Amino acid sequence: MLKNLWTDKKYFPEFQGTNLLKKIIGEGKFNYPKSLYAVMDTVKLMTSDQGIVLDFFAGSGTTGHAVLELNKEDNGTRQFILCTNNENKIAEDVTYPRIKKVIDGYGNTAGIPANLRYFQTDFVEKKGSVSQLKIDLTRQCAEMLRVKENVFEAVKLKKQAKNYKFFKNGNKYLGIFFDFFTDPEFTDFIAELNKLPQESEKSVYIFVLDGSASIFADEFAGVANCEIKEIPQKILDIYKQLAREVARK
Ligand SMILES: C[S@@+](CC[C@H](N)C(=O)[O-])C[C@H]1O[C@@H](n2cnc3c(N)ncnc32)[C@H](O)[C@@H]1O
Question: Ligand 1 site: residues with CB under 6 angstroms?
Fold first, then answer.
């Protein structure tokens, strides 16, 4: 049982934070990262071995590193989501390379196999009507929906499509249609859905202005194992709120 996390030397940032980071990505990139062991023990105390750990202020990425080490230790399937600003290019020069090296291996240290995705945020330009803005915002939701559904691999389609995308993870598929269902590409979207393996689990996100995806259920009636979801209004609301805050500055 852990009684006091912070008295053992392994919890000191200068030994298991700074020196460790130096070994992984070189010197002088980030001052005073936390001890890997302090974060490993904290995560172990707070989550199960299948937990998802979110660190909004990830800095040098110690949390992601700790999650990978814990999975190695106990064969867990924990996942992590790290967010950081990019001050002094920290995301590009430290957070991402560190995690990538822990996965691939560095020096004499063997890698810890895992998947890693790196997303960047950006502003969406306000142009055209409110409906157009919603469509533009919706197009930017794809990455968030991939995170939400845990489906990342892009499916290559024979026909180039402007208004839809498919992703997969094993037996699970994610389809996103970015425009009104009256758009001519909607028919192709349904045809592509029908080509997916019958028994696969399909989540389909469609764009609706009025928040009622269920009225389009008939359009998908022939597609097996398919759940229809609307592009979450919550995501659009958050974007709107951000846009308002940026406009005020
Ligand atoms: C105290 S450090 C985190 C240290 C981390 N636990 C480690 O071991 O590396 C906080 C980090 O949060 C990042 N940060 C600051 N403001 C932020 C914001 N608004 N959103 C996301 N990240 C931010 C900074 O880049 C900074 O490196």
Answer: 33-34, 56-57, 59-60, 62, 83-85, 87, 90
**Backbone phi, psi, residue 136, to 5°:** -60, -40
What ranges do the domains of the chain cover?
9-110, 130-248
**Tokens describing residue 239:** 């974007």
C-alpha span between 233 and 211 (Å, rounded): 7
Determine the atom of ligand 1 nearest the C-alpha atom of 55: 6
- What is the rounded average pLDDT for all residues in the chain? 86
**Maximum pairwise Cα distance, the chain:** 65
Atom of ligand 1 nearest to the CA of 33: 8
Of ligand 1's atoms, which has the minimum distance to the CA of residue 61? 9
Residue 30 and residue 94 in contact, taking contact as beta carbons nearer than 8 Å: yes
- Could you tell me if 33 and 62 are in contact, meaning their C-beta atoms sit under 8 angstroms apart? yes
Dihedral pair phi/psi, residue 51, rounded to 5°:
-70, 160
Is the pLDDT at 214 greater than 90, yes or no?
Answer: no
DSSP line for 182-240: TSTHHHHHHHHHHHS-TTSEEEEEE--SSS-GGGGGGGGTTSTTEEEEEPPHHHHHHHH
What is the pTM assigned to this prediction?
0.78
pLDDT digits (tens, 9 = 90+) for 96-110: 999 999 999 999 999
For residues 241 and 63, give the distance between their C-alpha atoms in angstroms, rounded to a whole number.
29
Distance of CA 3 to CAs 8, 11, 134, 142, Å? 11, 13, 52, 44
- The residue whose CA is least distant from atom 24 of ligand 1 is 59
Nearest CA to ligand 1 atom 19: 85
